[in-house]
Every structure is written in C-alpha cells, then in structure tokens.
Amino acid sequence: MNRSMPQPPPDPTTDTSPARAAAYLVEGGEVYGVAQMVLAEAGGLAARGWRIEIISLNPGRFVDECRSAGLNVTALGFGPSPRLTRGSLRDVRTLWTLQRYQRRAARQVARTLSELSIDVVNVAWPNLMGIAGRAAHARRVPCFWAMPNAVGSRWLGLNRWIYQHQCQEYGVVPLATSKYTASTLGDQPVKPIVRYLGVDQNRFNPVTTNSIQRHDIGIPDHAIVLSIIARIGPEKGQDRVLQAMLSLASTSPPLHLLLLGGPTDGPLANALRDTAQRAGAADRLHMPGVVTDPHRYYNAIDIAINCRIDPEPFGLSVIEAMMMRTPVLVHASGGPAETVIDGVTGWHVPAPTAEAFTAGLRRAITDQPRWDQMGAAAQAHANEHFTRDRMVDHYIQIVEQTLNAARTTPHD
Asked: How crowded is the C-beta side of 29, counted as CA atoms within 13 Å?
C-alpha cells in the first residue's frame, strides 16, 4: 500500500473515549461535498453514542436533510453570511461587513452552545469559522474547522492571513482533507492536521448493492463505460473527457460516457450534446441527471473518472468508486494524487487537457485484463484508509488529544 498514507487510527472496538456533545455550525443550504462530509461524520459520531446538535444560521434544504437523518437542529435565522470575493478590492469593505455579522452571530451561537451544553464545535465553511471560533472560545470549548476547499492565494494571500489569524486568536484546529489542502493554508502560526474523509463502507458495498443494469440507462452490455459523478460545470472537465473519448472512436468495444450530475439543461450540458451529435456519437453520451444513489450505478461502470481542472481538495467520488471495486482515472492534482495509487488502484493523468486524458484512457484500456485486479486493490485500499469509521476514529483521537492538551495548559 501507499507508504505516504497516515497510520490508521485506533480500532473502534477498542476505543474507550467518552461520548460527547458535538455541535456543527452550518448555513442551512449546504449541498454536495460539504453536506456529505457533515452528515457522514455526524452520523458516525451519533452511532458511537455522541449527542449531535446542528446549529444553522438559516433554514434551508440541508436543515431538512439533517432532520430527516434524525439529528437535532436549532435554526437561528440570521440571514446569509457575507462572502469574500476572489481577490477583489471590494474585499476590504466586505471584510468589515463580515466582521460585524460574525460578532453578532457569535454571541447568539455562544448562548446556544451554553444552552445545549456542547463539548466540541465543528464548522466547514471558512466564512463561518470566525463565528464558530469566537463562540467556542467564549464557551472555552474546542473548535475544529474541517477545511472543505483549498485556500485561495489572490490579493497577497488575504484569505490565508485571515484564516490563520482566526485559528490563532480563537484556538481553532484546522483539519485539512488532504496534504494539498493543508499546504494552501500554510503552517504558520497554526499547522493544519491532515484528516482524510471517509465513506460509509456499508452503503458503498458491491456485494450488497441492488445495482442498476446497463440496459436500464440505455447502455449496451458490450460497451466500455466511462463515468464522471459530479456537478456538470466547466471546472469539472466533462468536456475534455468527452473530447478524449471521441478521439478514440476506433476503440472496440466502443466507449460510452455516463455523466451522473446536473444541471442537464444548462449551457455546458447542451454543448456536450451538440459535440457528441456532430461526432455521430449522440448514442454514446448518457446524462440521467442528479442521482441520490450513486452506489447503484458502479456495476455498469468500467472506469470512474475525476477530471476536475484545478486541484481537487479531496474527491469523495474517487473513494466511493474505489469502494465499489472500480478503478479510477484521475487528474493527479490535489487529493486524488494522494488517494489513488497510479497503476495499482487507478491511473494518474498529469494535466487537465483533452490530450492528457486521451493518453490516460489509452493506458487504462490497455490495462483491461487487469481491471478486476485493480478494482480489488482499489476496494482494499479504500477500506483500509478511507472508511467512515476510520474518519470518525481519527476525529475522536484528535478531539481527545486537544481536550487533554487544554487541561494541561493554564488559562488567562
């Protein structure tokens, strides 16, 4: 296995740490990766006997999801948080507005933490970290920032400076989803802890999954099926993979591309259809839209692809594919470069270009006799390092170490 992987946390069956009360500060409208991350961790902790409280600044879709998952929710109704734009001069004015908003919201959140007798505070969105940090600091409980994305470096690294300052001032512990994500925050004055995310291995289990068959989605049984499970957008690279697939028109069996995600009626989706139509390959492009049960599709997929153009902070879909015994072709920048072992559990592509993906697909197709072996290695690698249990184990270990350190540190 990859020697760069961290040592596995303790086995949950031997974990003797006490169950605690943990709060998650959210906006209320979280979707995709952040929503999955919070629900997976909160659900894993609840299964260990922890009391989970969701504190939401606003009502929204994610609040409803949390309640459906059986989690307690307190909605405060503050309105959306101001956001820093990417390197704009308006950031200075927005920063002042954000500071006012955070101070006001932090006071209410601190009162809520006290009322709920919370031991630990968690936050994901960086624009909420100042609120969670202030409130946790006021209540003298630790705060953990699960960094969902890389920190931008524009405008002389303003964002990085702000987040580092808040971590230092309020004692926030940043948990990076990959070594790459950690590097974008830097390690001065606060060094992030790399804590890889995890996927529920009981849900993403190829043996127990009620799989969707190829004929259910209009794909012939003899095809080689490539798939991207992601929102359809320019930064996700679906257009480049389609170009790569079309450049390999002579491949036998023929290549088909399955895109699970939306919107399927937006400009990019329509452009993808037009491209396939002009190439005489409209029947080889499939876009069912957003699905809530991606694990059911992997039996129909030969090669999963993560083709995000910029570095992927982590890539949950990569882990889900590996757990489902599917090798993965990835743009090897960011998290996928750390989670996929080139030539063993999948293949690395060095650049996010159509030409690079063409070369990557040729290599993957050449390896077809090893697909079953690579799928088995991918599943074993994911189950060893990237399960929800491992993620929760590591989180609990970090929490207990932080609490123990706080007990031995004199307070002002």
From this structure: 5
pLDDT tens-digit profile of 134-187? 999 999 999 999 999 999 876 557 889 989 999 999 999 999 999 999 999 999
Contact 36, 316 (CB under 8 A): yes
Unique residue bearing structure tokens 């037009």: 274
Residue 410 vs residue 335, higher pLDDT:
335
What CATH class is the domain 12-196+388-407? alpha beta
Domain covering 214-385, topology: Rossmann fold (3.40.50)
Report how far residue 130's alpha carbon sits from residue 134's, in angstroms, rounded to the nearest whole number: 6
For 54, phi then psi, to 5°, come to -95, 120
The model's pTM: 0.88
DSSP, collapsed to helix, strand or coil, labels residue 194 as: strand
Higher pLDDT, 54 or 7: 54
Q: Report which residue type is found at 58.
A: N
Distance, in Å, from the CA atom of 263 to the CA atom of 122, rounded to the nearest integer, reads 31
Give the tens place of pLDDT for each residue, 385-411.
999 999 999 999 999 999 999 887 655
Asked whether the predicted pLDDT for residue 14 surpasses 60, the reply is no
- Locate CATH 3.40.50.2000 in the chain: 12-196+388-407, 214-385
What six digits make up the tokens of 103? 């101070």
